[in-house]
Amino acid sequence: MNQIIVNNDLGQQLGQLPGQAILCDANGRALGFFSPLEDQPRVEDLQLEPPLSIAAVEELRKVRDGKPLEAILSRLGL
Length: 78
Known about the structure:
This protein is α+β, with helices and mostly antiparallel strands. The protein has helices spanning 8-15, 54-62, 69-75; strands spanning 21-24, 30-34.
């Protein structure tokens, strides 16, 4: 993910927003959305990348070692 450092004035403005905002350029064109974080953590503390790669997730989806619903309900006495 890309990171853009903003100047202190813009940082204060963004930090005081009560909710989401649309960021626009001087010509009124929308650049993107800004969604403030509640506790303003340091970038190093954020998990910006998914814990598993797409390939790893696809491999996990292939695993079919669960039990049928009937067996689960039976074991629970339902």
